[in-house]
Every structure is written in structure tokens, then in C-alpha cells.
Design goal:
With about 160 residues, the chain is of the alpha/beta class. The chain has helices spanning about 10-20, 20-30, 35-40, 70, 100-110, 130-135, 145-155, 160-165, and strands at about 50-55, 60-65, 70-75, 80-85, 90-95, 115-125, 140-145. The chain is elongated and about 55 Å long.
């Protein structure tokens, strides 16, 4: 018999949110604005979010505690869907009205993170940099792969000017 979570008392709902792992919280947050705000108000503590940018996708690493294998989620973000890798399975979640920018903002918002902690530009083309700058206007730490950094620094001035990191 299904349980109507939103009809639970506040205390019971908070307990239910505490029992959810990160993957469940993300899924719950996508149901409605109300569930998104509930997840956000749960103030779940996670390690700072890291993002790895490739030409065709962006991979987020979200971890909750020291047990990397148990609580780590790898999110591959595409325009209107994400792939979640973890628990030895891959799930695909679709939200047709979401763009890549919406997914990034959603993850930062539900975990109360103002910006990405670590952004790594691993493998991408120079024209894609403008998109990266729009998707990640701020970050705390920026890493650029060796292969890409030589080409990048030839055509651009100092990194802090471009990324405001």
C-alpha cells in the first residue's frame, strides 16, 4: 500500500527525508516545486560538488560521507535528461523542460551550494568554452587537462579573467 509522503506530519516527513540516500533525494526533488523545497530545507550535508566537463557531457560527483562506494553518485548531464551511475546500475531520468543549465542549478539549489567547488575541464573544444562559462560562471577551484591547457592559454589571457574563479 503506497504512503502519501506529503500528507505526513512535518516531523515524520523530515525523518523520511533523513532516511533517503542522495539518489532518492534527487528523485524526490524532481517531483514538484514543493518536493524540491522540502529537499532543500532538509539541509543534507554533502561533500563539495565536483564537475568534470567533456565535449559531449558533464559529469557531477556528489558524495555524502567517507564511504565513497556507498554514497557517491555520478551524474552525466545532457540537455533534458541525466544518467545516474551508482549502486552498480545506471538509471536515466528525463525532465523534458530542463536544459543543462537547469540541471546544474537544480543540484546546487537542493544541496544549498552557491557554486561548484571543483571544476575540471577534461576534454572539450575551444568553441565550447563559451558554453562552459555560461554554465559555470563561478567555481572555487578550476583544473584544465594538460592537453587542453596548452591550446587554451595560447588563445586566452589569464584564467581568472575568463572564469572568475
Amino acid at each position: 500500500m503506497p504512503i502519501r509522503l506529503l500528507s505526513l506530519s512535518v516531523a515524520d516527513l523530515q525523518y523520511a527525508l533523513e532516511c533517503m540516500d542522495i539518489r532518492d533525494l534527487i528523485a524526490f526533488s524532481l517531483c514538484s516545486n514543493q518536493t524540491k523545497n522540502l529537499v532543500r530545507s532538509s539541509n543534507r550535508k554533502i561533500y563539495p560538488i565536483t564537475a568534470y566537463v567533456y565535449e559531449n557531457d558533464i559529469t557531477f560527483h556528489i558524495m555524502e560521507d567517507d564511504d565513497y562506494e556507498e554514497q557517491s553518485i555520478h551524474l552525466l548531464i545532457f540537455d533534458f535528461y541525466i544518467e545516474l551511475n551508482g549502486r552498480m546500475e545506471i538509471e536515466v531520468w528525463r525532465k523534458e523542460e530542463f536544459t543543462t543549465s537547469d540541471w546544474i542549478a537544480h543540484f546546487l539549489r537542493i544541496f544549498n551550494d552557491p557554486m561548484i567547488d571543483y571544476l575540471a575541464i577534461v576534454d572539450t573544444s575551444l568553441p565550447y568554452l563559451d558554453t562552459i562559462k555560461q554554465l559555470f560562471p563561478k567555481c572555487i577551484r578550476l583544473a584544465i587537462s594538460d592537453k587542453f591547457s596548452r591550446e587554451f592559454t595560447k588563445k586566452n589571457r589569464f584564467l581568472e579573467i575568463i572564469f572568475h574563479c
